[in-house]
Hints:
Elements: H1 5-9, H2 17-31, H3 40-56, H4 59-66, H5 82-88, H6 108-120, E1 131-137, H7 139-144, E2 146-150, E3 159-163, E4 172-175, E5 191-197, E6 204-206, E7 209-216, H8 218-223, E8 225-229, E9 236-240, E10 249-252, E11 267-273, H9 281-288, H10 291-295
Parallel strand pairs: 1-5, 7-11
Antiparallel strand pairs: 2-3, 4-5, 6-7, 8-9, 10-11
Helix pairs in contact: 2-3
InterPro entries: DnaJ_C, DnaJ_domain, DnaJ_domain_CS, HSP40/DnaJ_pept-bd, J_dom_sf
Organism: Ensifer oleiphilus
GO molecular function: unfolded protein binding
Amino acid sequence: MPSSPYETLGVSRDATQKDIQSAYRKLAKKLHPDLNPGDKGAEERFKAVSAAYALLSDEEKRGKFDRGEIDETGAETAPRNYYRDYAGAGGTAGRYESAHGFQDFGDKDDIFSSFFSRRGRGQQSMRGQDSHFSMEIDLLEAVNGAKKQISLPGGGPALDLTIPPGTRDGQTLRLRGKGEPGFNGAAAGDALIDIRVRPHPLFQVDGEDVRYDIPISLSEAVLGGKIRVPTMDGAVNVTIPPNSNTGKVLRLKGKGIRKPGGGHGDAYVTLKITLAPQADPALAAFVEGWAAGKAEDPRKNLGGNA
């Protein structure tokens, strides 16, 4: 298994965010567990691809990885020159020492007397600072809502987080009172969670609408019929009109993303005629003798150079 997220996604270190997203979508479509039921190898590769995308799609984390500050799992690594600097400093690396001792601040007795005199006058209360975190979620979790847990750096109990239906990429969720503790009895700060939504291998978001391709057989395209089509909130029956070409778009009203003011956008399904991987001799013989099919020129409107 490649140890570098670049190798996992098959992109170079100077890849653009568009390159990274494109590589992720291609691999996710191929490896998604829903498309490979029971295939543990594909499931593990899908997890690795998702983890690699989570790191490289975050510019801050990507920069830290490129500088060697974190590894491919996002865990911090020791600075490259830490041990050398520690030894050269006689074991004092990480400590602050003033070149002039207390001379920078005047007489040290004045410092302590001033400090204790201020404490004697009473301490002001101060609200705790807000804590900032980030969380990556699936598109369907963002659309339909979900219950998640987030583990905070430094330990402590995990926080329960409710993802509201219709959450957008880049939206910030607030957990009141879950930030840094307050001072001298004041209230704690809040935990602010920045949400990043992973691209979905099938659905492509377009505002409140969603667009995606659905394969159909040749007989379904010619004769029409009913097929089951996945949507953001479950599969539905869709009628394919007879004589449907590749590229025909069907609108599924109200099957898009929840709108902030209520209601939902629409789903737009593009049909793609897909032939069987193995040639059908009977079909080939029929087409060979099909005079009407040969009479029609599908490229007649492309101009004189076609």
